[in-house]
Design brief:
By secondary structure, the protein is of the alpha/beta class. 33% of the residues lie in helices and 22% in strands. The chain folds into 3 domains: 84 residues, Udp-n-acetylmuramoylalanyl-d-glutamate--2,6- Diaminopimelate Ligase, Chain: A, domain 1 (3-Layer(aba) Sandwich), CATH 3.40.1390; 210 residues, UDP-N-acetylmuramoyl-L-alanine:D-glutamate ligase (3-Layer(aba) Sandwich); 141 residues, Mur ligase, C-terminal domain (Protein-Tyrosine Phosphatase, Chain A). It contains 17 helices and 22 strands. The longest helix is centred in the C-terminal third of the chain and has 15 residues.
């Protein structure tokens, strides 16, 4: 990355304190003094639980070339240090990222949705990487901080980019789209996530649909065929749109879907010009739709069927998402603990029931956050669904786990097989009461529950032969 001080001032609309050469070079952008490299510009972000202005001296010691701040009266900072004063450092970060993105005439694909956006983004990147040099969002760097930091990694070698857009309140999607300036937009689906910030699923659909309405006329909107909000989005889209799904009316659809005993899915992909088989090596109907969304989003990039097949064959999920792990002979684990909402929970439980077949099945479930007023109702409904799908053992964890347990027992689930623990650590401590010798275990909860501790604990027991 090569920016001048003049470009930073113009992009952010900031005021330079002191007299410094506008031609000085900046080699990168950082918001974390611990990760800052010499020559980086340091943006002092301020949030409810942190203030980057407390780390200005640390940034200078690490070799920060320029400081971007929103506080006056920084008397402790040497006048020899270039400082740019802005009204809002978060706004400045996004403005600078948008400026940097405009320096590259490459197609950008933006992905959002209630479920599956990270997996779909990774699938799109895997497909494009068969033919192009691709920049993609790493992990879930998808918000008003993560998206700019992703775009700052753009360089001359990149031929295209795929970025993830995550939102939790109104107004964020328009801002993310303004920063990323995508040509292609994908909304994977709309589910009961972030209801606390939006109030209703329709409000979520309207906010995420802003991605479509901001695409250029020559762009492409990729829409889920089965979405009840398809018409709403089409009416707000000025560019070409295509759809994906498992019905023949979709522009790109899947048929002859068949799951194997490892959890993967065989299917035939049908487009307007061709059809070909693929294998998606990760479990669940949701991931079939994610794969179809990725194929639809990359349809104009000229990938061959062989390249698409090769990309999916080698595909692996990132983080704790839909991983099937073997703990010991005839005892497996579905590690899907990265995050959860009511819809993704139901998909995971359906997968547990499907793959569990006649084996003992254990659902270790925890709190789902950001559901607002419907929180307790949704957790009880989840318990009911566990009972309906014939899961053998329920381990409910956390303050809302009680509601999961009550919902299950109320709808016929055995009280003796419905456990509740306040904390994730108690699950392993009491494993003698619920851990089967063979079977299938699902681990899933919202990110804040830190259920990876349960997964890591089970894997540690495997290593120590304590299972």
């Amino acid at each position: 990355m090569r920016l001048t001080l003049k470009e930073v001032i113009e992009a952010t609309g900031g005021f330079l304190l002191g007299i410094h050469s506008h031609s000085m070079r900046i080699s990168g952008v950082s918001t974390d003094s611990r990760c800052l490299r010499s020559g980086d510009l340091f943006v002092a972000l301020k949030g409810p639980h942190y203030d980057g202005h407390h780390y200005l001296e640390a940034a200078i010691k690490k070799g920060a070339s320029v400081l971007v701040v929103q506080k006056k009266g920084l008397a402790s900072i040497s006048k020899r240090q270039p400082v740019i004063l802005v009204a809002d450092t978060l706004q400045a970060l996004g403005d600078l990222a948008g400026y940097w993105r405009r320096q590259f005439s490459i197609p950008v694909i933006a992905v959002t949705g209630s479920n599956g956006k990270t997996t779909t983004k990774d699938m799109i990147a895997a497909l494009l990487s068969q033919k192009y040099s691709v920049l993609k969002t790493e992990g879930n760097f998808n918000n008003l901080i993560g998206l700019p930091l992703t775009l700052f990694r753009l360089n001359k070698k990149h031929q295209c980019a795929v970025v993830e857009c995550g939102i939790s309140r109104k107004g964020e999607m328009a801002r993310l789209v303004k920063i990323a300036q995508p040509q292609i937009g994908v909304v994977t689906n709309i589910g009961r996530a972030h209801l606390e910030g939006f109030g209703s699923m329709k409000a979520v659909a309207q906010e995420k649909g802003i991605l479509y309405s901001h695409l250029p006329r020559e762009g492409q909107a990729v829409i889920q065929d089965s979405s009840p909000y398809k018409k709403l989005w089409k009416n707000k889209t000025r560019c070409h749109f295509s759809s994906f799904g498992c019905h023949v009316r979709a522009s790109i659809y899947g048929k002859d879907i068949r799951a194997d005993d490892k959890g993967g899915n065989f299917l035939t992909v049908v487009t307007s010009r061709r059809s070909f088989p693929i294998y998606v090596p990760i479990p669940g109907q949701g991931n079939v739709e994610n794969a179809l969304a990725a194929i639809a989003a990359t349809h104009s990039f000229g990938l061959s069927a062989t390249q698409i097949q090769r990309a999916f064959r080698a595909f692996e999920t990132t983080g704790h998402r839909s991983r099937i792990l073997t703990l010991k002979n005839q005892l497996r684990l579905i590690d899907d603990c990265y995050n959860a909402n009511p819809d993704s929970m139901k998909q995971a439980i359906a997968l547990l029931a499907q793959l569990g077949n006649e084996m003992p099945t254990v659902a270790i479930l925890g709190n789902m956050f950001e559901l607002g007023k419907s929180s307790r109702q949704e957790h009880r409904a989840l318990g009911r669904y566990v009972a309906q799908r014939g899961i053998k053992t329920l381990i409910a964890v956390g303050s809302l786990g009680k509601d999961i347990q009550r919902g299950a027992v109320k709808h016929g689930f055995s009280k003796r097989q419905a456990f509740h623990f306040d904390q994730a650590t108690s699950v392993l401590e009491n494993r003698g009461a619920w851990l089967p010798r063979k079977g299938l275990i699902l681990v899933k909860a919202s990110r804040g529950m830190r259920f990876e501790r349960i997964v890591e604990g089970l894997l540690k027991l495997k290593k120590e032969k304590g299972l």
